[in-house]
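anyone seen this seq b4? input:
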Amino acid sequence: NPNFDSTTALWSTQPATPGVVRFDSADSDGWSVSGSVLMEFVAGTQVYGVSQCVQVGDTDDYTFGGRVRTASPWPGAPEAFGQVQYFGSTNCTTLVLGSEVLGGAVAGDTGGVWVSLPESLHTPPVGARSAYVSFLAVAGAAPSFATSFDTVSFRIELGAMFADGFETGDMSQWSASVP
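predicted toks r here
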C-alpha cells in the first residue's frame, strides 16, 4: 500500500501511540479514493515514521523514494527521508548487515506542495535476504510540524533497457543480428 489508499495497517508506526502517525485523506495525486500517512509533532518525540519488512535479493540494485509535504514554522526542520536496513534473515529480525542506507532528505516547510524525495540507488550487502524500509520525519529543532508521505516506493532498479552496447552498434552481446 505505497499510496496509503485507505489505511496504514500494513505499516509499523513510530511512535506506536495511536493518532500520532495515521492515515490522512490528503493525497499527493489529488485522488479522492486515496490518501497519505500523516505524522504530527508530539512534545518529547524526535522520530516519526512508517516501516515495513520486505524480502530482497542481494544481487539486485534497489532504489527508494516517495513524496513528502511538511508544514513547519522552523526553517530546516523536520527532515523527511527514506531509510533501509538490510538483514541476513528473511524477516528483518536477525543478522543486521552493514549500516543503514539513507535516502535524500527534504527539510523544513514545503509551502503546502508535495515534494519528491531524491531517489537513492544502492546495492544491498552480500547475503541480504530482507530489508526494513522506513520513511521518517526527524523533528530536530522544530517546535511543531505536520509531515505527510505518499507514493512511497522501494523497488528493483532495472536500469537502461539496452545497456549492452546496442545504441552504439556493438552487437557482440546479442545472439544474432539481422541486417
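The first strand starts at residue 12 and ends at 14. The CA atoms of residues 72 and 145 lie 5 Å apart. kinda curious what u guys think
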